[in-house]
Design brief:
Blueprint: E1 2-7, H1 9-12, H2 21-36, E2 40-45, H3 48-55, H4 65-88, E3 94-99, H5 101-105, H6 107-122, E4 126-131, H7 145-155, E5 160-165, E6 186-187, H8 192-195, H9 210-222, E7 226-231, H10 237-243, E8 249-251, H11 257-269
Parallel strand pairs: 1-2, 1-5, 2-4, 3-4, 5-7, 6-8
Antiparallel strand pairs: 7-8
Helix pairs in contact: 3-4, 7-9
């Protein structure tokens, strides 16, 4: 199975911007084990700006673009150093790919990205993708890594996109404010009622929230890829998610375009 795992800043770092070592180590261990099992994995990782904030001892996430880009430049080094060291413990090689919106929108550059990822997987490496925040501006940015995760999943023909965050999934209301909020285990269609559950943005160091996750789910579902939102503090849930067992909120994909075409062809012949 080809799986894209997107992990958010809230999982990777504390509010201080310093790395949450317990979460990152646990995540790497589970991903390495799933890779040993034979799955093809791609990691879409946030956290560069957040970790740059911690490394530079800034008081919080910067508002101006130059400081954001400076924090990303520092934080990306910290992030990849940690991933390289931790995955090496389990004999896995990582590769870094940094993208902007312009890379996604440009047909040839996107094709080159897809070819690179495909070859890295063939070579047994684990691609780690992030937005290139050091050069991305409002005009060329993807915007958030939830969307980037969906773009990557659709581009490489993934079977599953898993979005790890600080929530257990999509709820009927904000569980932090409503004790009667219930987890929604399965979503087969993103209706206006589902969109209304998006609520507020995420943590102070993050850029997304449930709204960006629903947007990513819509993209993934249309591209023929299931998506699951789950709690990044419990990376062991990935075992159940990959096996198709209930965990978090699963958004069920429509048939992949090739499968849908094949079904139409079979119906025509019959």
């Amino acid at each position: 199975m080809k799986v894209v795992v997107k992990v958010g800043t809230s999982t990777l770092a504390y509010a201080t911007g310093r790395m949450n070592i317990r979460h990152v180590e646990a995540l790497v261990k589970v991903l390495s084990d799933l890779k040993n099992e034979g799955h093809e994995l791609i990691l879409v990782s946030s956290g560069a700006i957040g970790m740059g904030v911690g490394k530079l001892n800034l008081p919080g996430r910067p508002e101006d673009m130059p400081t954001k880009q400076a924090a990303a430049a520092v934080g990306q080094c910290e992030l990849m150093y940690a991933y390289d060291e931790l995955f090496s413990r389990y004999n896995h090689t990582v590769a870094q790919l940094l993208l902007t919106g312009a890379d996604i929108d440009h047909q040839e550059r996107r094709h080159n990205f897809e070819n690179t990822v495909r070859r890295l997987l063939e070579l047994g490496a684990l691609p780690i993708v992030n937005e290139n925040d050091t050069v991305a501006t409002a005009e060329i940015c993807v915007g958030d890594n939830d969307t980037l995760g969906a773009v990557v999943a659709c581009s490489v023909g993934a079977d599953l996109l898993v979005v790890l965050t600080d929530m257990d999934g999509l709820y009927t209301a904000d569980p932090r404010r409503d004790a009667e909020a219930r987890l929604i285990p399965l979503v087969e269609e993103i209706t206006p009622d589902i969109e209304s559950l998006a609520g507020r943005p995420g943590s102070a160091l993050a850029t997304g929230g449930m709204a960006t996750k629903l947007k990513a789910a819509q993209m993934a579902m249309q591209g023929g890829c299931d998506m699951v939102i789950a709690n990044g503090a419990r990376p062991e849930l990935l075992y159940d998610i990959v096996a198709g067992r209930p965990a978090g909120t699963r958004f069920v994909a429509r048939a992949k375009p090739s499968e849908a075409g094949g079904q139409r062809e079979r119906r025509t012949k019959s």
